[in-house]
Design brief:
The complex is a heterodimer of chains A (164) and B (147). Chain A is globular, with a radius of gyration of 19 Å. Helix content of chain A is 45%, strand content 17%. Chain A has one domain: Trafficking protein particle complex subunit 3 (Muramoyl-pentapeptide Carboxypeptidase, domain 2). Chain B has a single domain, classed as Trafficking protein particle complex subunit 3 (Muramoyl-pentapeptide Carboxypeptidase, domain 2), CATH 3.30.1380. Chain B has a 4-stranded antiparallel sheet with strand order 1-2-4-3. The longest helix of chain B is centred in the N-terminal third of the chain and has 15 residues. In chain B, helix 1 packs across helix 2, helix 2 packs across helix 3 and helix 2 packs across helix 6. Helices cover 48% and strands 21% of the residues of chain B. Chain B is globular and about 40 Å long. Classes of the chains: A alpha+beta (164), B alpha+beta (147). Chains A and B meet through helix 1 and helix 2 of A and helix 1, helix 2, helix 4, helix 5 and helix 6 of B.
């Protein structure tokens, strides 16, 4: 048995192997993990929305010993990872870090959130510093706001924006 | 011991290991799995492997004792001058898969078999892992040449 405490170091070796295979092998695997994570999250995220996500990551914060702040607002959830235990362990590792280690998180989270009807802005910050930030918002049912200009406005002219 | 985690446990990682084993075997091969587990055995657990190379199994015994206790497995370790035997009567990893409603991969125990093999490669020890039941096994690390 590889202890659950050492899963991330095994995961890190899986990433190295898949990265060597090329042809998007790593990204395809993230999608498989995303499908696996649906067991734990999808129904919760769909039915309870941002509150459900807050509850899920609060549970993860405790079980995975994360230094994580959760900021739940009526229209968003922001997760600020102050010290990611996963990357910390992958770095505290005689096998060395796969430099794409951090990519697995958005790799599974973003597709799953999309299925639940949510968007996510993911800031990895630095792949060798165990900090990151995720901001989750509901996918707008309004058309995407896009600012269109026929010409560059001149100084003093009020800039007009249109909904395209 | 090189790695000695404390604090809460996230046992659902065993589910992710199960998914990963199935995925690698289906999309690549069993040999690919062996390659990954060999890297775990010899690179991640470099410290245990190095000690085994010098005929010292103490860190492996400590590792088994610590993590099987931490995950509340049912097990026993027997040490003799010729061998170390880990008898697992309830594997915490398999127990967690069943709790999650996941069918253990037919290759789930490959992680144990291959990591043990990797740990013992180029050492005075050899490994034998017998699966004796669902979530049960006997892992023997014995000195080469001993019957």
């Amino acid at each position: 048995m590889i202890p659950s405490d050492h899963f991330v170091r095994f995961y890190n070796e899986v990433f190295k192997f898949l990265d060597r295979q090329g042809d998007g092998a790593l990204e395809k695997y993230y999608l498989e993990i995303s499908r696996h994570q649906e067991i734990h999250c999808l129904e919760l995220f769909k039915t309870k929305g941002l509150q459900g996500m807050h509850d899920y990551w609060e549970h993860i914060r405790i079980e995975e010993n994360c230094d994580l702040s959760l900021d739940l607002q009526p229209d968003s959830l922001t997760l600020t990872m102050n010290k990611c235990p996963s990357l910390t362990k992958a770095m505290d590792n005689d096998a060395g870090l796969c430099l794409k280690y951090c990519d697995h998180c958005p790799g599974w989270i973003v597709p799953l959130l999309k299925k639940a009807g949510y968007d996510c802005r993911y800031d990895i910050i630095d792949r060798q510093i165990p900090r990151c930030q995720i901001k989750i918002t509901a996918i707008s049912i309004m058309p995407i706001l896009k600012i269109c200009h026929s010409d560059t406005p001149s100084v003093g002219e009020k800039q007009e924006s249109l909904i395209c | 011991m090189r790695y000695c985690e404390t604090g809460e446990l996230h046992l659902d990682f065993h589910g992710a290991t199960n998914t990963t084993i199935n995925y690698i075997a289906k999309n690549f091969s069993e040999e690919a799995l062996h390659e990954i587990f060999f890297a775990v055995g010899q690179k991640v657990y470099k410290s245990i492997h190095k000690k085994l190379q010098h005929g010292d199994a103490s860190e492996l015994i400590e590792h088994w004792q610590y993590f099987f206790t931490r995950e509340k497995g049912k097990f026993q370790i027997e040490e003799t001058p010729e061998a170390i035997i880990l008898e697992v009567s309830e594997c915490p990893a398999v127990r967690q898969l069943l709790k999650l409603g996941l069918a253990p991969s037919p290759l789930f125990c490959t992680q144990t078999i291959m990591v043990n093999k990797a740990l013992c490669e180029n050492t005075p020890f050899e490994s034998q892992t017998e699966i004796t039941g669902c979530g049960q096994c006997r892992q023997t690390i014995k000195r080469r040449g001993v019957k």
